[in-house]
Amino acid sequence: MRSAPSSPTAEPTATPRVFTDLRAPTSLEEEQAQLHLALEQSRTEAFLKALPAVGENFDAAATAGGSDRTVWKDLPPDIRQHYPSELEYDLELASTLTNPRHIEQALSRAGMHAVPNDGITAEGRNNCFLISMSQHETSDYSSSHPARVDHYRDILNTAPDLNLAANEKLSADSPAAHALVDLINGDPSVQPKLKVIVISVSDGVVHQDHLGSSAPDARTVVIWDKGGHFEAVTGPIDIASHHGN
Fold it and tell me: What is the pLDDT of residue 237?
């Protein structure tokens, strides 16, 4: 692991084997890794295709602009009386606008699931994005990789250009999140490089943020943003284990 947040410019001299290679595997272990990667990418592609695009399968008013939302003070009295307080109304509204039903349906159809984590490591909290990325990096979803996560967090926290506080949450489009993905992709042992898609629901619409590699042979991985809590998305529970890079 490196001690700086920037990725090295040097590339490995040997041509890495990636899932687009048509060469025969040189060992049973390599053959199994190639087959697992191909299956993973097929499931991921099916999941992303199953997600509704903006305007699909949603109420007409459920747009990114949030025009269907009615604030508490504008509620008619006969509707307001059904809520004990403004807070109760706001909580119900937030739940409606971030309803994960479409994502859950797409996961089910593709035979995938989100891997729970509590974001906690020995040295801190709010590390759910780092845990999810470490699981994708290693292809080991049975662990939260606390030592690796704490190492990455230390690198990000000490990077002068990120101004990241201890235990500060990362958002999908933050400089720290991009720095983490670049840090992981800068490791020559990470092959193929990761193309990270972070999915979320806001105002009833599924959104996607893209980070990492744009190479055609990159490995596409998905992280689910559940309203500020991140979980890695992977295949069936019975095979979602360590397969190595």
Answer: 67
